[in-house]
Known about the structure:
The protein has helices at residues 10-20, 46-60, 108-121, 187-193, 195-207, and strands spanning 2-5, 26-29, 65-75, 81-82, 130-141, 144-157, 173-175, 180-181. The chain is of the alpha+beta class. The protein has a single domain (2-207), classed as Alpha-Beta Complex (Maf protein), CATH 3.90.950. Strands 1, 2, 3, 4, 5, 6, 7 and 8 form an 8-stranded mixed sheet that branches. The chain is globular.
Amino acid sequence: MTLYAATSNPGKLAEFAAAAQPSGITVLALPGLEAIPAPAEDAATFQDNADIKAVAYSLAVPGLLVFADDSGLEVMALSNQPGVHSARYADRRLPDGSNPPASLSGTLDERNNAYLLQQMESLPLSGSRTARFVCHLALARDGEILLRSQGSVEGEILRSPRGASGFGYDPLFLFPGLNRTFAELSREEKWRISHRGIAFRNLLQQCRLL
Ligand code: IMP
């Protein structure tokens, strides 16, 4: 069986492909992905966004099994923000129409992390800093969703970044079981416990039913 990944992130593709290999499933990049107009990921939930992508991209490659993922960080004390806005948290127009402070600098990941810490400054010092990474996957063929899966991992948001690997919010996300942030884990260590690893292993299991 071959699954086509609707992701332009080469790191994610390599992880999906390596994880699928032992089950005899091949994961390949979706052919011509760059030329396919990207659908708007404007749904209110991760699952709906994953569905939107899986449906849109599978319609562009008739007959192929296409999967898409949507993931992000939820901080409980911030009413599960940044949530579906995780990718562009620091640049997002706020519900009242205003923009977040323009004072943040650096890469988008650095700005997102700095903005998250700013948002958490106003929380009580003794309050919970619990957060979770969430990943939802959808597998579709010819515009029809065949399978869905999800994974999540709970941790804590540190007061300053630690570690140099990974991406996104990894340097702020402490995994208490190992007392290390996701940016202090090797790729393999992170994949074993991460939201994306859990969700993908679950999808692979379900693929046996197809
Ligand atoms: P995507 O939907 O997987 O591309 O993720 C959207 C955003 O969520 C990313 O741009 C990151 O900011 C954040 N995110 C998702 N997964 C991770 C992760 O494993 N580590 C750190 N940040 C993540």
